[in-house]
Structures
1.
Amino acid sequence: MREQETESNDSSRPEFWDVRYACGETPWDFHGVPAALKAFLKESRPGTVLIPGCGAAYEVRAFHEAGWRIAAIDFSPVAVKRARSELGRLANCVVQGDFFTHDLGADRFDVIYERTFLCALPPELWPAYVNRMAQLLRPDGKLVGIFLYGEEKDPPPYPLSAEKASELFRQKFSLMKNVPVSDSLPIFQGNERWQEWVRTDGFSMSCTIDLESSI
Ligand SMILES: C[S@@+](CC[C@H](N)C(=O)[O-])C[C@H]1O[C@@H](n2cnc3c(N)ncnc32)[C@H](O)[C@@H]1O
């Protein structure tokens, strides 16, 4: 029961992540940049990007080298220390703070990059995740990245289902790209999708993908 969870097994708290980073129990760590992100960077015009729940933040360097302006955020002090030491002179791209409440400035982002952040959050936070993403993106900005689907007996991670994703995103986003990921870590193999969700609240978009019939 969520009400009975303690600091050490509640993934909505920084302490949950601190202990795992501190003892090197980080099975989600890709130690690099996924191929789908490299392809996205090759085909996209640079702009501004936010990387929430950035962990070790390898992607910061990839976005930087492709000409993007980056903000990365994580609420675990241990993760932020790790990211900063990984990034050297790009360390100041990483802020320590809570994605849901930290003041990220008045400018809206062109793109927000997702990998193993949504699935790190207890599902009761998912509607707030979608609202915050819409709030932080410019009106036709994109939430892009790798989303985990499937089932998990012992979460986290909390995977999505196609039905849940449609229900969560349909008010504010339209799915414009949805392809399997080729280089998943073994623990995520077969369950990751590269997706591009365009913020559409206030706009009517015509060419969207029917998620439930495409997974
Ligand atoms: C599974 S890890 C993924 C890290 C990174 N995205 C990656 O792909 O390696 C989830 C990360 O989200 C961070 N996190 C969870 N909830 C957060 C929140 N509300 N605000 C900021 N960071 C959060 C955790 O500290 C942790 O580093």
2.
Amino acid sequence: MPAAAWERFEASLWSTTSLLVLADGESLVVDPAITLHEVARIDRRGLQLGTPVRHVLITHGDWDHVCGIGAFPDATVAMGEETAELLTSGAAEKSIERAADQYEVVLSGSPRVDLAFSRGSAIALGPFLVETFPLTGHTADGSGYRIREQGLLIVGDHLSPVEFPFASSPAAYRTMLAGLIEMLREDPPDAVIPGHGPPLEVKEALGIAEADLGYLRELHKAVLDAVDGGCSREEVRTGGLAVDPPRPCAPDLEEMRGFNVDRQIDEILATA
Ligand SMILES: [Zn+2]
């Protein structure tokens, strides 16, 4: 199998990545996104290459990563148990419907799950052997993937060159980045695939991981120092907001800077 037996597709919103991975006359698509038209293009490409999409793999339950599942009624849709829970509870479908209204886009219908795995286990999807591992930090349900035969490390909404970290748990995110840095150094893949922005070489991915970890450590310290100094929540928040993220993001996501600060304050106050 040649190392580059994959193609990346980019949705117009937030440079969202969908990855088509090919092997033995069939293909697997990771996070098919976003609009009906964009997802149909991926399906057509699989057919055109003589490798129809038979498997769908999902990194996490945010709407922009699960909104294309409905376009593949005949494929097996696999995800971690925690993400499956978000789908079966109806929470993911609700957020897809909200997003379709908000962004005025036509999406592919209801998401579903056919195969839920326990994160950490390796799974066989047709000819694809996929090593799974928990990727918490951005969301609690995230899964990372290693598809060794194609040299791929797939990291969901982490290590993005076009966004700063959006951390629902800054503590989990710091630990996860430390783990990814170790993996990139000691067991490097050929390519790292973030959920937003272009593929990365290991060296670039390491640079992003280190910058992101530096930002989250600085945010943690700023909030901790302000709490220790007896500041009010508003003052603590101002201190946290003074920590600059490592890179810009889409203007409509700028508010995530304040989201990170609030999550960091919640974690520190909950343990104070
Ligand atoms: Zn995303």
3.
Amino acid sequence: MNLPGAVSPTDPDLVSTGHRAVAVSPGAEPDGSRRPRRKVLVTTVSSDAHTWNLVFLQKVIEELGCDVVNLGPCVPDDLLVSACLEHRPDLVVVSSVNGHGHQDGLRLIRRVSERSELSHLPFVIGGKLGMDGGEDEDRPAQLLRAGFRGVFEDNPASLSLFRSFLAQLPSGSEL
Ligand code: B12
């Protein structure tokens, strides 16, 4: 199945091959070699008070051998920008489930794109991004156009695609 909006950091085939999942044990490549630990910043948007989605994502990302900085709920755009500058993550994962993720995400990524120091930093977004709770054909395209590298709206395949995306993410020192 081809999911609109879900893209790979290094492998454009992931979009068309859909379910290809890569299993990685913490700190090791599938061939057993070591790679530098990647740092992932987990956040939500300013309006969103839900927290278990963030805890869940933190656990998923840690299982894939990454260090996580979790900013918790209701993160103002400016705080997120300063956290990116302070922590220098390899990836920012934005999760939102309250229905405003699409609008807040567009505003947030525009704010981020004003900072040239963050131009190299990939952002992805996922969860329940609209008020309808389902998927919308235009939302991922809009979010990708605005600057997100991946959009993972709630559906049965989104977590597996996200894991594949993360498994292929290079750390800053490998770029
Ligand atoms: C608990 C809860 C609350 C609590 C939150 C407490 C807390 N400390 O977290 C409270 C009571 C505060 C709350 C408030 C509101 N809530 Co609420 N809440 C829920 C509820 C019941 C459970 C959410 C939860 O914790 N799930 C467990 C976590 C682990 O799962 P999850 O959130 O679904 O996240 C999963 C996926 O979305 C996905 N995912 C999420 N982000 C990402 C990111 C990436 C990259 C990927 C790959 C995957 C991914 O992975 C997660 C695991 O599968 C849901 C209904 C439900 N059953 O889901 C409604 C729900 C999320 N809430 C909803 C709403 C509307 C609200 C309010 C607006 C209600 C209101 N009118 O006030 C407010 C918003 C407050 C705010 N400012 O954000 C709606 C959202 C509707 C939508 N988006 O379509 C839901 C779906 C209820 C419903 N069916 O209408 N809520």
4.
Amino acid sequence: MKEKHKKVMRGTGVEPLSSCTFLQVFEEQNLSLYTLKKGECDLCAAFNYGDLSQDQYDIHQQKKREAREENDSDKVSEECVYIMDLQSGLTANEFPTIITSFVRSQLPLPDHANKSILNSDGCCYQDRNTTLSNTLLPVAMTNNVVIEQEYLDKGHA
Ligand SMILES: [Zn+2]
């Protein structure tokens, strides 16, 4: 924290606070540092500290349950389910090209399947955008297949 303060102040031309003064101000402002517990998302933590309303928390929990139920049903589905765990580095143009090429390579669908399901973590700039949907649409239409896009809710994988 102190190093971050020094780094920020370096660009301003103002001398950074000494460690002692920094800690004193930190305590005077009634600040504290909090590390998320394993499996705890920022929304759940915010609710536990009174920074998120009950309604917002209930909606978050409902979405979490629905995502898990959908995930469970995908695991036993006869459909072609492709689960993606995206890493940073791919742009909104690169990812649709890659995933569309992959989906196309899996066609025709096996006899037991009626659709392709793309299950991903919902990283907006990569897979939760109209670029990907608009890239998949012609594949679905020209091959007469259904392609569903499913996303996990924020904070719970
Ligand atoms: Zn949560």
